[in-house]
Amino acid sequence: MHSNHLLLEEPIRMASILEPSKASFFPAMTKIVGTLGPKSRSVEVIASCLNAGMSVARFDFSWGNTEYHQETLENLKAAVKSTKKLCAVMLDTVGPELQVANKTGNPISLLGDGLVVLTPDRGQEPSSELLPINFDGLSKAVKKGDTIFVGQYLFTGSETTSVWLEVSEVKGEDVVCSVKNSATLAGSLFTLHASQIHIDLPTLSAQDKEVISSWGLQNKIDFLSLSYTRHAEDVRQAREFLNKLGDLSQTQIFAKIENMEGLTHFDEILQEADGIILSRGNLGIDLPPEKVFLFQKAALYKCNMAGKPAVVTRVVDSMTDNLRPTRAEATDVANAVLDGSDAILLGAETLRGLYPVDTISTVGRICAEAEKVFNQDLYFKRTVKYVGEPMTHLESIASSAVRAAIKVKASVIICFTSSGRAARLIAKYRPTMPVLSVVVPRLKTNQLKWSFTGAFEARQSLLVRGLYPMLADPRHPAESTSATNESVLKVALDHGKASGVVKSHDRVVVCQKVGDASVVKIIELED
């Protein structure tokens, strides 16, 4: 790590701890990804999730068929329409995930110090002595003494739902394991994680490709969460596949780092991917517990300096069944924000948790409090130093806009963009005020029909900390020929006023193109 300071503003006043939290139009600058499932797929619940602060909906294809997820997505569209809140769609692939299929659905109890056999014979009935798995090569990949974890949602802290196995011996294609802890496996599908072992399966499985080219293409997904990304080549192959599908060439790929292999190639993966998801569930059991915090801080720092969004998972596991997080979880969410996370991803908490809406609003409130004490000054200096000189034209404009906004205490930065790149660069410097990204659609043609771009770019900024998109009217170009074309700016300011971000006499920093030049200007609002 390049800094020995915690990114925390000094000094923290005790009085601010005693003051009640104030609600605002933007619950937090940090974004929240919610996984939609059985407990969060009705129009009413999704609408409440959007109002509570969810800005990206994640569809996890490791369970449920395309019809089920399509129904959920139609409900999401209805909720977006009724709440008038934008929401992006993320498709999460299955990847080389090892699974135990429990067709009967009956709970399976395993006793500590007992033995259990893992077999690739899928025709066998699962029991406390035998678990059939979906991978033929496990016996070749493991050796005596290796660690394997099995559970529906691995090691949440309530260790009655996950089991820790140690390989005793390999018998042909079967793997005999000793059981380290007593546990009851419930549900129809359990994940199996072989710790620090290379699994010889493709990152993008045939099933994943089928789902992407049907469901993903039909719904023009904004993000692809690439599970078990282990090499930069995985991202390149996924991008090649998306490009062949035409309409998904703009879909952003977020590499999910889930094991030691992905961690070893982290720098190359970061270069290729559009963003990173730190999958702390699997990684948390692949790494020794004392190393987890170090990985999080180092990875988030690298993402921040590269200006690529970083998403942290598995923060409030206990809220799956409880209305309040534990003290450790509340601190963990705040630390993720102080470490530089762009978004928090909720999995089982919203998918099958009892309190999906409360979980989102609780996480949002914790993020908002942490953002108030985020040491922006130190962060800004660190980022400028890392970028070095000479800066690129766009980087210079972005950092200047943020510096100007802080010096004049602007209430908002408005950035006109068509690709979204300029707005993301501004957000990279973590301004203390929201960045309103006015995405100006561009007209394009494939020789057969005309279409506007812009919707993708607008929704994709919903995963970047502090960035709030707004689609402009295509008749008002962002790259105006003169500085007097203010109509689109007026629309943006009106939007800011309506949402309570901007009021009379406030200062606003505007970043736009005028002809060939990029301009940063400061305007003061009249009554």
From TrEMBL:
Keyword line: ATP-binding, Glycolysis, Kinase, Magnesium, Metal-binding, Nucleotide-binding, Pyruvate, Transferase
Cofactor section: K(+)
EC top class, as a word: transferase
Catalysed reactions listed for this entry: pyruvate + ATP = phosphoenolpyruvate + ADP + H(+)
Residue span(s) of domain Pyruvate kinase C-terminal: 395-515
Domain of life where this protein originates: Eukaryota
EC number: 2.7.1.40
Domain Pyruvate kinase barrel: residue ranges: 30-360
Known pathway: Carbohydrate degradation; glycolysis; pyruvate from D-glyceraldehyde 3-phosphate: step 5/5
Ranges that cross the membrane: none
One GO MF term: kinase activity
Pfam families on file: PK (PF00224), PK_C (PF02887)
Family: Belongs to the pyruvate kinase family.
Name of the protein described by the UniProt record: Pyruvate kinase
